[in-house]
Amino acid sequence: MNIEATCTPHPTETGQYLLYLELAAAEETSQERKPVHLVLSIDASSSMGGPRLACAVEAGRAVAERLGPEDMFCLLAFDRSVRTLFGPGLANDEAKKAIGEALGALRPGVGTALYDALQKSHESLRRVFVRGTRPHVVLLTDGYPSVGPNRPETFAELSRQAAEEGIVTSAVGVGLDFDEAAVAGIAGGGGGRYSFVDKESDIPGALSRHLTDLFSIAIENVTIRLAPGNSVREASLLHRYSTKVGPDGFVVETGPIGRGNPRRLLFVLKASGEPTPVAATIALTVRGSAGNEPETNRILSVPVNPQSPAAKEAVRELHRLTLSSQENDFWEAVHHNDRALAQKAHDAALRTVAALEAAGAPAGQLDADRGRLADHKAVLDGRLSAEAREMARKRSHQTGISRVTSLFEPES
Which of 130, 177, 291, 351 is the most buried (most CB within 10 A)? Predict the structure, then answer.
């Protein structure tokens, strides 16, 4: 595994420092794909009828076709109840035929038992052990839970409990009417990717990206134990990971790391005086995708070094996360009809994008950021329809979650 670690002064706050880590699979990591253990759970409620369900069926077939005979797969569908369409079983040719037939016979029903679907997805993974894989759920929905528990924190907690057992849960929200808090909570609590697609025709592409994530896993998990230096009186982690805080510092679990998809962690350290020669000591335990024995000898001492090659990336990452927070503030103000507060958040976001440009952020990323802020301006000017405004808000929310969880969606 390649590790980039740097500590640099905070660009605007005196006495504060940015501690930045980037963890990536080494180039020599085996390209051979390990078997996957996947549950795909598809919403088949009445709102999914017509072209939307047809696209979900097409996506489900495409997922099955990409699986191999050593991959374990389970397919669920849910409306007011949850039913198993296939598995769990190996995705051989006979199974793929059965999966295709089951999907072809799928019809929309009444109700959305989102909690039961999530719970049964996790239970299906607990029934079968597949060596060298991390069990993964991908749940797709376009509505609000109408059967069973419906509080967003309940879904996040269910996914969080599964994550403690090693199960990753990702979620795809379709259209403009799904329960965004619940769906984001499912992915956030489960350590997986959250995707929003506004058009049913984008469903296959979204599921394809989730499967590519699963296929590319090279490292199952990295446990990071970070002990701040003696002069550090306070430290905080800006990214969202499974984290425990103890008397000596942080213990962070990154979850899976895919080839070409590094994990980023940004800490803010507040010093009581001049920093010690070592800003922090970091011990890493790495578990490979084949279930190898943990490596326990990765220990880093990270000094303050503003000339480090990664120092600029640390500053850019701070600005990205700040921008996501400001965008969230903007949409919260819009929700509460507070135009003055929305304008303030928008102006702050414009300054952050300018700071990103000055820090050397990629042009494509800046274009996407400016596009979202152009939507802000259109909202403030009253030039967006209610539907277009909701679409813009959901896109902004997806970008924010992708950045804070260090699971980036392709910018569009």
Answer: 130
Q: How far apart are the first and last CA of the chain?
A: 30
CA distance 389 to 385: 6
Q: What is the pLDDT of residues 248-269, one digit of tens each?
A: 899 998 888 888 888 999 999 9
pLDDT for the residue numbered 366: 96
**∠ CA 192-198-203 to the nearest 5 degrees?**
60
Q: Are strands 136-141 and 168-174 parallel, antiparallel or unpaired?
A: parallel
Sign of CA dihedral 126, 129, 131, 137: negative
Residue 60: other Cβ atoms inside 10 A:
25
Pseudo-torsion of CA 269, 275, 276, 278, nearest 10°? Answer: 50
Q: Each residue of 6-37: pLDDT tens digit?
A: 999 999 999 999 999 999 887 765 667 788 99
Kindly list the domain boundaries of the chain, sorted by start residue: 2-30+218-304, 37-215, 312-404
> Is the predicted pLDDT of residue 339 greater than 50, yes or no?
yes
Query: How far lies 200's CA from each of 56, 76, 131, 170, in Å?
Result: 8, 19, 35, 18
How far is C-alpha 409 from the chain's CA centre? 9
Strands (E), 155-231: 168-174, 191-197, 217-228
Question: What CATH number belongs to 37-215?
Answer: 3.40.50.410
Sign (positive/negative) of CA torsion 210, 37, 67, 105? Answer: negative
CATH of 2-30+218-304, one of 2.60.40.740, 2.60.410.10, 3.90.1570.30, 2.30.110.20: 2.60.40.740
User: In the block, which residue shows the tokens 């959305």?
Assistant: 112
Specify the pTM: 0.84
Confidence grade of residue 297 (pLDDT, cut at 50, 70, 90): low
Domains 2-30+218-304 and 37-215 belong to one CATH topology: no
